[in-house]
């Protein structure tokens, strides 16, 4: 039994073990956050920069089988079984929210939480009338009549026992040409917490409703037909922080993306622009005579990763290379230095600084975008992996006078 499945079984046996009510658990087996990746098959694909035309990326957006349960404990134990018969299940669009497709009710709140006030629900305590200052209640006290939260005490990280839970099932086919590559499945947005199974094996858990959750499914998926199962809980401990003035809806509300990479591959990118504003030509609107790009790339740590190199290219709007450089992958060039959040430092990283002349600046009126192409080169000089990202050269800052300036000019927000 996988670690995620063990955790899920524990919370079913003992509510105190619920991951979605544990603020120390934001994910299980989820990949670290990173820039969007495409799995391009060639430098040509990377230069074109159409992520969804990549040879090794596909979207699983479609109509998925779906059933809604009143709470996680009501989900059948075998719902994620790869041979489960879905006859009689509903079909809903992914991406989409289940409330807008006839399942449950959207909730709009402003300053209130979207939780109901139900006696006995674990997310609330109900003080008694006449309670003493130390919180003790006399024997003769009776529950108060309350409006929404009037006199009730919220008990985060607990959420309501009645926690609508959506179960999704879909099948996909893995092409044989993908079978010997590393496989990643990215949920671009799920509200608010979910477990993932592939072919009956529990892969992991994620929350953060507006951020991607990505899982490595190498070894779980196989060539040919595969089944995904996803269990989504409407509320989790994160709902206390995510509550805001908007419609609360639930489910897989952004795309589900499957992509494949070689064993050694690019895992993250970082791009920073450095502009010398004193060299802007033609008054406020001309190009800048000199600009630099601070670039970094981390790769998956495989045996011998220090013998790889990374090549960086800067392409202008016509697709012409205007600057390029390469750097070795080493343990001495982490992408993010001075971390204080306890997160991992990317040991297998490479970084360079590119210089370019007569660079067109990005602005809201003229949003000029260049493209950075990143190529991972193997020990023998062969090109192994490819990614790219668009970048605009701009400088935005708040001056000592409190004025926001974009590229040295006062920015007026309309």
Q: Low-confidence spans: pLDDT under 50, at least 5 residues? A: 128-148
How many DSSP helices?
3
Distance between the termini: 56 Å
Order of helices and strands: HEHEEEEEEEEEEEEEHEEEEEEEEEEEEE
- Helicity level, as a percent range? under 10%
What kind of sheet is the major sheet? 7 strands, antiparallel
Given the C-alpha coordinates, what overall shape results? globular
Mean pLDDT: 88
Description:
- This protein is mainly beta.
- The protein is 5% helix and 37% strand.
- The chain is built from 3 helices and 27 strands.
- The chain has helices at 3-13, 43-48, 239-242; strands spanning 27-28, 57-59, 62-69, 90-94, 107-109, 124-125, 153-154, 165-174, 182-187, 190-191, 193-198, 201-207, 213-216, 224-233, 246-248, 251-252, 256-261, 266-275, 288-299, 309-315, 321-328, 349-359, 370-377, 383-391, 396-398, 404-406, 409-410.
- Strands 1-12-11-14-8-3-4 form a 7-stranded antiparallel β-sheet.
- A hairpin with a 5-residue loop joins strand 23 and strand 24.
- 33% of the residues are buried.
- The model is unreliable at 128-148 (pLDDT under 50).
Q: What's a concise summary of this model?
A:
5% of the residues lie in helices and 37% in strands. The chain is built from 3 helices and 27 strands. The radius of gyration is 26 Å and the shape is globular.
Indicate the topology.
Layout: H1 3-13, E1 27-28, H2 43-48, E2 57-59, E3 62-69, E4 90-94, E5 107-109, E6 124-125, E7 153-154, E8 165-174, E9 182-187, E10 190-191, E11 193-198, E12 201-207, E13 213-216, E14 224-233, H3 239-242, E15 246-248, E16 251-252, E17 256-261, E18 266-275, E19 288-299, E20 309-315, E21 321-328, E22 349-359, E23 370-377, E24 383-391, E25 396-398, E26 404-406, E27 409-410
Antiparallel strand pairs: 1-12, 2-17, 3-4, 3-8, 5-15, 6-7, 8-14, 9-13, 9-17, 10-16, 11-12, 11-14, 18-19, 19-22, 20-21, 20-23, 23-24, 25-26, 26-27
């Amino acid at each position: 039994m996988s670690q995620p499945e063990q955790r899920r079984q524990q919370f079913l046996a003992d509510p105190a073990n619920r991951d979605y009510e544990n603020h120390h658990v934001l994910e299980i087996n989820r990949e670290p956050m990173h820039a969007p990746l495409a799995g391009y098959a060639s430098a040509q694909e990377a230069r074109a920069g159409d992520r969804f035309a990549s040879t090794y990326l596909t979207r699983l957006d479609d109509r998925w089988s779906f059933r809604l349960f009143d709470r996680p404990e009501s989900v059948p134990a075998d719902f994620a079984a790869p041979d489960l018969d879905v006859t009689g299940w509903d079909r809903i669009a992914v991406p989409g929210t289940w409330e807008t497709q006839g399942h449950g009710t959207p909730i709009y709140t402003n300053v209130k939480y979207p939780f109901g006030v139900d006696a006995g629900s674990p997310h609330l305590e109900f003080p008694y009338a006449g309670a003493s200052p130390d919180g003790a209640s006399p024997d003769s006290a009776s529950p108060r009549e309350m409006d929404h939260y009037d006199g009730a005490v919220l008990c985060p990280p607990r959420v309501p026992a009645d926690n609508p839970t959506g179960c999704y099932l879909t099948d996909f086919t893995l092409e044989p040409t993908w079978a010997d590559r590393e496989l990643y499945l990215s949920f671009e947005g799920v509200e608010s917490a979910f477990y993932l199974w592939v072919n009956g094996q529990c892969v992991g858990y994620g929350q953060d409703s507006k951020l991607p959750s990505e899982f490595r499914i190498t070894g779980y998926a196989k060539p040919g037909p595969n089944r995904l199962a996803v269990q989504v809980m409407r509320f989790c401990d994160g709902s206390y922080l995510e509550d805001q003035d908007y419609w609360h809806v639930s489910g897989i509300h952004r795309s589900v993306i499957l992509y494949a990479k070689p064993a050694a591959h690019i895992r993250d990118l970082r791009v920073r622009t450095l502009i010398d504003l004193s060299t802007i030509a033609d008054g406020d609107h001309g190009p800048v005579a000199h600009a630099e790009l601070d670039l970094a790339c981390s790769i998956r740590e495989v045996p011998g990763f220090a013998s790889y190199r990374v090549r960086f290219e800067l392409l202008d709007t016509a697709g012409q290379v205007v600057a390029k450089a390469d750097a070795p992958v080493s343990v001495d060039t982490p992408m993010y230095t001075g971390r204080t959040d306890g997160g991992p430092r990317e040991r297998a990283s490479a970084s360079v600084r590119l210089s370019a002349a007569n660079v067109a600046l990005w602005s809201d009126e003229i949003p000029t975008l260049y493209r950075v192409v990143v190529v991972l080169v193997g020990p023998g000089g062969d090109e192994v992996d490819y990614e790219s990202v668009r970048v605009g050269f701009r400088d935005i800052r708040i001056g000592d006078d409190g004025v926001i300036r974009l590229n040295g000019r006062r920015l007026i927000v309309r």
